[in-house]
Write a structure and sequence with these properties.
64 residues; elongated; 0% strand
Length: 64
């Protein structure tokens, strides 16, 4: 796990930040995860599928 060291910071501030981080982390874990279906439905409609199709690529000629 990565570690971050911050020097010359007030002890009171460090404790407060640790509490905030732990609180936010525990609240996120307790929330119900969004279903994959709901996640996909939230995606914006950017146009028809044909607009995102890749052209058929025959590659390039290679000398052997």
């Amino acid at each position: 796990m990565p570690q971050l060291t911050v020097r010359k910071i007030e002890e009171k501030l460090a404790r407060a930040e640790h509490r905030c981080i732990l609180r936010a982390s525990s609240l996120r874990q307790s929330n119900k995860r969004t279903s994959y279906k709901k996640y996909l439905r939230r995606m914006p409609n950017l146009g028809p599928d044909e607009m995102f199709e890749r052209p058929h690529d025959l590659g390039r000629k290679v000398k052997l």
